[in-house]
Amino acid sequence: MELDEITISRAIVASQLEKFLDFMEMDVAVVGAGPSGLTAAALLAERGHRVGLIEKKLSVGGGMWGGGMMFPRIVVQEEARRLLDRFAIRYTPYREGYYVSSSVEAVSKLTAAACDAGVEFFTLFSVEDVMIHGDGRLSGLVLNWTPVEMAGLHIDPLTMGCRVAVDATGHDAVLARLVERKGGEIRVKGESFMWAHRAENEILSHTREIFPGLVACGMAANAIAGEHRMGPVFGGMLLSGERAAALADSLLRT
Questions:
Q1: Distances (CA, A) of 190 to 171, 183, 187
Q2: Burial zone of 148 (CB within 10 Å; 0-12 exposed, 13-18 middle, 19+ buried)
């Protein structure tokens, strides 16, 4: 069969535009495709919700890809081992309560689980604002291409509506800071220095609805609360994503 370049281009543009239009209104917009965002998105989609995962970079996985200082290994503690099993991520015991996994396998398995559950990925999308109307709830995101943002071009954005948004943007806490700058009742304290034990223990208490219609998880939740960072241990990220999914599911059902 002779390949037709125009047909190839039409197939890509037509199919992606169809998806983009299809997700102009969704149940949950998860922003940030790191470990907590991937976990939250996969679990929410498995519960039957329409989930779009928005990532500013070309690739997904966030800080998990690089493991620790580019050694492609991550550590997960005992409390989160069941989520490694849940997503069929292999691991080996290191010492009591500590397990080591391949960062590449972990990202790949989480991504595959999200895809299998029906999550739609929108990479190279940056969120530059949020929509909040008269009811005071976050009801959508204002989006532009990441290369547009990087180039500093003045190009007007487009919007996507959602019933619930999840801020899984890591250390930057992008959605929370946008709401804070526009006068919303959020204060982003910024993350504190490294203290893995405390950060891992407290992350679930910080994973919560921080503004009507907006749930924070992962390092975004810790940054908002002024909590410590934890480095390349990822059990808290997985558990926080799981909790965010439960919170978002509850909001969607009320």
A1: 8, 17, 9
A2: middle
Q: What pLDDT score was predicted for residue 1? A: 77
**Cβ-based burial of 224 (10 A; exposed 0-12, middle 13-18, buried ≥19):** buried
From CA 239, how far away is CA 241, in angstroms rounded? Answer: 5
Packed helices 35-46 and 235-252: angle between N→C axes, nearest 10 degrees: 40
Structural domains for the chain:
24-252 (3.50.50.60)
How does pLDDT run across 156-214, given as a tens digit for each residue? 999 999 999 999 999 999 999 999 999 888 999 999 999 999 999 999 999 999 999 99
Q: Which residues contact 147 (CB under 8 A, 6 or more apart)?
A: 124
What's the predicted TM-score (pTM) here? 0.97
pLDDT digits (tens, 9 = 90+) for 91-147: 999 999 999 999 999 999 999 999 999 999 999 999 999 999 999 999 999 999 999
